[in-house]
Amino acid sequence: MEDPIEKLHKLDRLTDAVYCHIRNYEFREECKQKQEATSRNIIVRRQLDQVRQNRKRKFTVHTVAKREEKAEEAIAVKKERRVLL
């Protein structure tokens, strides 16, 4: 049977292994430098913005209209409920 202290030390070693990059000062500095470099470069910024725009979902006109109808119906139902109370 494992001693509770040994078990605690074992868990500490595991968490150290998992979260070592957070404590790593050099890793944080590299991240800061990378962020500064990308924020200065206009071409990189444009490309990142384009990627973000392309990741957004694009809905058809039919889907948008269907959602609006659904929302209008829900609002009407809520108003009816409030009147009845």
In short:
The protein is mainly alpha-helical. It has helices spanning 4-18, 20-23, 25-40, 42-55, 61-84.
Written overview of the protein:
There is one protein chain. By secondary structure, the chain is mostly helical. It has helices at 4-18, 20-23, 25-40, 42-55, 61-84. 86% of the residues lie in helices and 0% in strands. The termini are far apart. The model has no long low-confidence stretch (mean pLDDT 83).
How is this fold's topology laid out?
Layout: H1 4-18, H2 20-23, H3 25-40, H4 42-55, H5 61-84
Largest sheet: none
The SS-based structural class is mainly alpha
Number of helices: 5
| Spatial separation of the terminal alpha carbons | 64 Å
| β-strand amount | under 5%
Report helical residue fraction: over 70%
The coarse overall form would be flat
Number of strands: 0
Q: Please provide the ordered H/E string of secondary-structure elements.
A: HHHHH
List the defining traits of the structure above.
single chain; 85 residues; mainly alpha
